[in-house]
Amino acid sequence: MACASCSTKDGSPKGCKNNGTCGTDSCNKLTVFDWLANMSLPNGEKPFNWVEVRYKNGRKEYYHNTENLTLSIGDIVATQAKSGHDIGMVTLTGELVRIQMKRKNIPENLEEALKIYRKASQKDIDIWSEARDKEEPMKVRARQFAIDLKLQMKISDIEFQGDASKATFYYTAEDRVDFRELIKVFAREFRTRIEMKQVGFRQEAARLGGIGSCGRELCCSTWLTDFRSVSTSAARYQQLSLNPQKLAGQCGKLKCCLNYELDTYLDALKSFPKTDIKLQTEKGTAVCQKTDIFKGHMWYAYEGEWMNWHKITTEQANEIIEQNKKNIKVASLEEYASDLIEDTKTEFENVVGQDSLTRFDSPKPSNKRKNNRKKGNQGQSNKNATPNNNNSKQNNRNKNNRRKPQNSKNAAK
């Protein structure tokens, strides 16, 4: 989604080139639409004096507006930090901030709440921009230092504080890493205060962003804020093939979207009998081979006749199971399966005046072949015509010869 300052040139998007720090806040990650912006407060109510501020790659913090500054979405502000100050952008104001803080279990009456100092001046913005430009080359050098020290870690991102007094290195690692020597190298080379912060693989993907296998931006970097555990049972319930290459996301873990429809599948499976229950019939014992959750069908096969599957509904399967609990065997599954025989033949009609759908299946013969065929047919017709003419002449002669004797006999009489 582009911001209002983006434009096009010669039909192609030019872009604001702010790399996620647009003034209108439309290009940012994890944005929240302020649906209370057009509503006025009741008489006597004061506006909520907390503000949501966003930093690099979707990191958000909540600050107390003690100075009662008039802030709106997109304002660059100087905020309180543990040492010095930081520069961020206002992403949310008003009553919706109260809802977000309640959702994230952040109390409003904090004695040590961080504060907003002022709106950022041009000097603050210049220092902040220069620090942001140093992050990418520093990341390349920092990764090389970690490789030289043979540390089993990956430095995924670097974030400078707004006053350029501290750099936070985000890294991922499978196990604990002793990076004390690495910090000394960083401090000596970069000449700034260093803070190391370990993040998970899902948090790393959320910070960096990317495009998923569905063709859209990653959920964790656009709107997903909480990371729930995903297990392989979610794929089993949805009857997905346990292929790690297809089920894993950009973080290397199972995709978060496996949990999106899991509750719907679990509700649908409540009406299904367990697949390990065998159906007892007079013809034999039937074992479940396949289920269709969407249509509510199940396929069973007799023991010893594994190639012949019989399709029945879940209601019929439950009915047979109830009969078996009463020590009653049904005659066979064919009686139930015959009720589900449907005509699967589909007829397509040309209702919009289009050409045949198979018009491209067989190529049209060339004109040369047509002409050669025509010539060949004409030659054969001429050859066939000559013997027919000869036969006709011979027939006429035979007729004349038959008539001559009759005439001679009459003449003799």
The coarse silhouette is elongated
Terminal-residue CA separation: 120 Å
Portion of residues in helices?
A: 25-40%
The secondary-structure element order is EEEEEEHEHEEHEHHHHHEEEEHHH
Strand composition percent: 15-25%
The chain-level structural class is alpha+beta
In what order do the strands lie side by side in the largest sheet? 4-3-6-5-7
Q: Which regions have little confidence, pLDDT < 50, spanning 5+ residues?
A: 1-5, 17-21, 385-389, 403-413
Provide the gyration radius in Å.
Answer: 41 Å
Number of helices: 11
Number of strands: 14
Overall mean pLDDT stands at 80
Tell me the count of domains: 4
The biggest sheet amounts to: 5 strands, antiparallel
Region (Disordered): 354-413
InterPro entries: PSP1-like, PSP1_C
Organism: Flaviramulus basaltis
Biased composition (Low complexity): 377-398
Distinctive features:
413 residues; alpha+beta; GMP Synthetase, Chain A, domain 3; 4 domains; 4-stranded antiparallel sheet; 11 helices
Question: Can you describe this structure?
Answer:
By secondary structure, this protein is an alpha+beta fold. It has 4 domains: 8-117, no CATH class; 127-199, GMP Synthetase, Chain A, domain 3 (2-Layer Sandwich); 207-268, no CATH class; 272-340, no CATH class. 34% of the residues lie in helices and 17% in strands. The protein has 11 helices and 14 strands. β13 (297-302) and β14 form a beta hairpin. The longest helix has 46 residues, at 367-412. The model is unreliable at 1-5, 17-21, 385-389 and 403-413 (pLDDT under 50).
